[in-house]
Amino acid sequence: MSTLDRLLGARLPSPPEALRRGPFREGAFPSPLHSERRAARVGLWLGLAFTVCFVTGLISHLIQQPPGWFVWPASPAWLYRVTQGVHVATGLAAIPLLLVKLWTVYPKLFEWPPAGSVSRVVSRLSVLVLVGACAMQLLTGLINIAEWYPWTFFFTTTHYWTGWLAIGAVAVHVGAKAPEIRRGLARRGTSGAVAGLTSAQAADRAVANMAAENQSVSRRSFVLAAGLGVGAVTLTTVGQSLSPLGAVSVLSPRVPGAGPQGLPVRQTAVHARVTDVGADYRLVVEGPNRLELTLADLAAFPQRTERLPITCVEGWSASATWTGVRLGDLLEAAGLPRDTEVTVESLQERGLYRMSTVAPPHASSPRTLLATGLNGSPLDPDHGYPVRLIAPNRPGVMQTKWVTKVAPA
Amino acid sequence: MSLTTQRQTHPSAFDLDGPNTSASPWWRWLFVLPGLVAAAYGVYGLLTAGSRVPLDSWLTWFVGSALLHDLVIAPIWIGLGWLAARVLPDAARPAIVVGAAVAGLLALVALPFVLGVGADPENPSFLPREYGRNLLLVDAGVLVLAAVWAGVATVRSRSRAVAEDVC
After folding, report:
1. Cβ separation B90–A216 shorter than 8 A
2. Nearest by CB to A165, which of B42, B98, B135?
3. pLDDT at site B24
4. Residue B15 has pLDDT above 90, yes or no
5. Helix/strand/coil (H, E, C) string of A188-215?
6. What is the phi-psi region of residue A326: left when phi exceeds 0, alpha when psi lies from -120 to 50, beta otherwise?
7. What pLDDT does A77 receive?
8. In order of start, what are the domains of chain A with their CATH numbers?
9. Which residues of chain A have pLDDT under 50?
10. Residue B6 has what pLDDT?
11. Which residues of A touch B118 (CB under 8 A)?
12. What is the pLDDT of residues A178-208, one digit of tens each?
């Protein structure tokens, strides 16, 4: 036996047996649905949900803070709408899944002795990291889409790094629980379902599985509750990004058609302190042939109309009809190539999102506009009057409003 | 408890159930090693984020989220289950458990919208619905359906019991 094995296996003193009360008692949780099989099977769905959330979240992060190797296309225009809608919808669906999963293993929280050996302490701490990271991601994610910030950390940074911790902890957990998962996912009655078990253990499991089928609240009821729970949460919220379900999703924080000019707003003009745009407004385009344009000058450029979605990082999205000048036309007039990487600056003086970078695929896209009109009328102040950027396949935080300056990056 | 049974119950660091782990699938390392790297990267990022991620606030939410489940949500649900087992006839329990699970999950997810702490009078496009009323209506509908299903199941099981008595 190595020193490490001896250390990990070292028995720790047990608390007195008299303290073994309430949930710590043997058999305190009688339902046979608190089982390896149920944990493995719900865990599979939950693991898939976390993987989807991680990948879609990573995509959103890379778009907003692109490293040199990363290129995000301007087409198809709906792609980010799908990835971010899926990110939030899957995160919401994962809330029921996490609760059901934790229910299946809840008795393990009260194992006796609470810390039988050093290895048990290590193991239980690793489970705390797993549960803490997963629960925190879902809880703070939900509270964040309610635009409620009862914490002092910056949400997106925290959500990003905790996301790495969560997906890592999930992966380690899957590896650590590999034998249990393999048994739990194997068909009942096959040799895989009892792999690694003694015959006595296998017989115990068979009895428990039979009880789970036949008791009043059976395995079927359990699966039905989990499935309907996920379905109900999804159906009542997903309409904020899947507009045909807008009327059905009576608990969604956004409604696709609700807002000034029939479009939802994330940041208002009042909040951004851009309410007094007057006749002295100019749009500056830096370049070899610097432009300083009034609204009348802008109206003299060829006007284009595009139907493009606004997609918020909070998951909601809605399509709208935008009218304005092609960004490429302005760049060309300023003496710049159409695929110049540019920054777009807002009249808004403070805030993380007062400026955005337009990468070459979007700068050169014929669908990228500096819009002055929305759904047939001039932009509402909350939608960025007098001028806003609207480009295909980008997060809303990068669709800069109240634009006053365009310059090569 | 003897030392041997103790060992059998806790043979490895991650195995809570106790069967021997000699049959460990080869693919476990494809999860463990990248998982450790990803988790370490996340911890590194959190520790180096500086003022953007104050660690006291982070830790409060990290541990608090787990405790919210372990000490609040789970005990309430387990308590309700205990109550249901004592009060309800066996045949009615599945319907009531399923209905209560769906209604409870909807209430949990909708709670931040119902509370509306983040609502902004300047921005009527955010939280445009009456969330408290909608949640009440949906949950009432779910629970009524569950009660009807429970009633039908109870009546059926009684008439089946009577029929078996007659035969």
Report:
1. yes
2. B42
3. 79
4. no
5. CCCHHHHCCCCHHHHHHHHHHHHHHHHC
6. beta
7. 97
8. 3-245 (no CATH), 261-408 (3.90.420.10)
9. none
10. 37
11. 146-149
12. 999 999 999 988 999 999 999 999 999 999 9
Q: How far is CA A92 from CA A51, A137, A234, A235, in A?
A: 14, 11, 7, 11
Give the pLDDT confidence score for residue A355 in this predicted structure: 95
Residue B4 pLDDT more than 60?
no
What does A250-262 look like in DSSP terms, one character per residue?
Answer: TT-S--TT-SGGG
Q: Which among A77, A42, A41, A113 has a CA at the least distance from the CA of A307?
A: A77
Nearest-Å Rg of the Cα atoms of chain B is 25
Provide, as residue numbers in chain A, all residues whose Cβ is less than 8 Å from the Cβ of B76: none
Which pLDDT tens digit goes with each residue over B59-99?
999 999 999 999 999 999 999 999 999 999 999 999 999 99
- Sign of the four-CA dihedral A124, A129, A132, A138: negative
Contacts of B132 in chain A (CB under 8 A): none
Mutate to test the interface with B, among A139, A238, A240, A401 (most CBs of B within 10 A): A139
Coil, helix or strand for A11?
strand
Residues in chain B: 167
CA A270, CA A293: separation in Å to the nearest integer? 25
Q: What pLDDT is stored for residue A175 in this prediction?
A: 95
- Chain A residue closest in CA terms to B45: A161
Residue A332, burial from CB neighbour count under 10 angstroms (0-12, 13-18, 19+): middle
Pick the range with the lowest mean pLDDT from A97-106, B56-65, B110-119, B156-165: B156-165
The verdict on whether omega for the bond into residue A76 sits within 30 degrees of 0, i.e. cis, is: yes
Residue B138 Ramachandran class (φ > 0 left, ψ -120 to 50 alpha, else beta): alpha
- Nearest by CB: A165 against B33, B39, B70: B39
Paired with A283 in beta bridges are A293
CB spacing of B53 vs A161 below 8 angstroms: yes
